[in-house]
Amino acid sequence: MGFDPYVIREDFPILKKEINGKSLVYFDNAATTQKPKQVVEAIRDYYFNYNSNVLRSINTLSSQATELYIESRKKIARFIGAGEEEIVFTKNATEGLNSLTEIIPKLLGRKLTVLTSIMEHHSNLLPWRRMVSEKGGRLIVVGMNEDYTVNVEEIEKNLENGCDVLTIVHVSNVLGTMNPVKELCKLAHKHGSLFVIDAAQSIPHIPFDVSEIEPDFVAFSGHKMLGPTGIGVLYVRKKFVEKIEPWDLGGGMVKTVTLEDQVYEDVPFRFEAGTPNVEGVIGLATAVDYLSRIGVSNIAKHEADLVKHLMEGFDEKIITVHGPLDSTKHMGIVSFNVKGIHPHDVAQMLDADGIMVRSGALCAEPLVNALGVNAVVRVSFYLYNTLEEVDRFHESLRKLRGFI
Amino acid sequence: MRELVRRFKNPPNYGEIENADIVSEEADYSCGDRVKLYFKIGGNRILEAKFTSEACLFCNASTSILLDLIKGKTIEEALSLKEEELLSIFKTDSKGPRYRCIILPLRALRKALKGLKLK
User: Fold this and answer.
1) Quick check: bond before A268 cis, omega within 30?
2) What is the pTM of this model?
3) Looking at this predicted complex, what is its ipTM?
4) According to CATH, what is the number of the domain A295-403?
5) What residue in A sits closest to B31 (Cα-Cα)?
6) Which of A338, A332, A343, A335 is nearest to A308 (CA)?
7) Any catalytic annotation for residue A185?
8) Which residues contact residue A45 at a Cβ distance below 8 angstroms, ignoring those fewer than 6 apart?
9) Domains contained in chain B, CATH given
């Protein structure tokens, strides 16, 4: 059966909801995505039939829960082409990126020179800045090209001068543009630098395979890919898994403890101190099953159709699109401003018609300011959005003309 | 919303005061609103107040209304103005989606006048 968003929508009860007397149009998927029945059912099933602490007790219930947990990790790892020992569960991409500012200085045993870009979400800027101010080292922020991707030449020049870490957003949460991570990874490795990807906006929307890109670390969030909130993944490349130190210590991550010493658990369990987010892991694994069944490349194709329809419908006299005018360069995300109307007011007027969008600085203020504005309106799509919804959006936007 | 647009597309009290006694700027970085308040003070009273901004309709309307409310008042009276008074004009409360937009000028006002009291 081919890809059909109307069939998919049947799995998402929330899409039948009405807001302000209009049927809900959810265009805020870069913030978080809706959850299919299958994900919610899996969590319910876990709590009603398997709830127990994992990886600890020898009782039957705990064994069953542990099996579900381990099986889920395998599925999630497979989804990005990773080995199960390379997957560390976090609460979200933000936590993964923050952890790296503890992990990498210990791994390399020196003050770090970190290279990042102006395109980053705050979560890939603030942790590194704090690390440098507390531990020393240097943070270099490279700019953007005219095509709204990172400036690769500037990156290469800095890498040649000696950097320890290159950390780059894969798909911008503001512009929807995609950075050439495979090329950047090769460059980083050629010059002896580690390569980190913030994949929060890419893994949910486009095929992503660590065995093809070969990054050292990747962070992403479950709730942006149909999974529950509070679960994320930090991918750690196999060659570093045994070398990095656990950053959180406590229960579940040690084999033996005496009053003087301890022996850590095997990887990746030694990186997950405390009772893990079992429901989150099971929910995310179910989300991954769902996405795999639909096919991420089909989702990418569908989003490209939606973006094209969206951008074709814009009246360029009143709409300024940020980012390339070529719709194929936007991975399901388009930010814009309406002439003479503040983004919050645009968002509120769309809201009155049941259309949910995001407005503001989108947790990427340096980037938004570099676009010459202090706030934007953002539309972000996912598999259940339809061309009809885009038409409704344009219809609502046309009403704004009276206010300009 | 339409009513707001009609009344506040060109909000009253918008503009700078040359030789203002106090200028106070406040921004909400999460949403990108920014307001700048200008005051003329005589004795203990606010004689004149104006504002400039890069802000949404709600923030502009709220700032415009706030300045009307405090003009001619004493510093203490202006500082005693409560969030709720401003929010109720917009028929909302602190849980409303535009809370931060509406409250921003009040934050700027308090910043300006508390500083003055310290002097």
Assistant:
1) yes
2) 0.90
3) 0.73
4) 3.90.1150.10
5) A360
6) A332
7) no
8) none
9) 2-118 (3.90.1010.10)
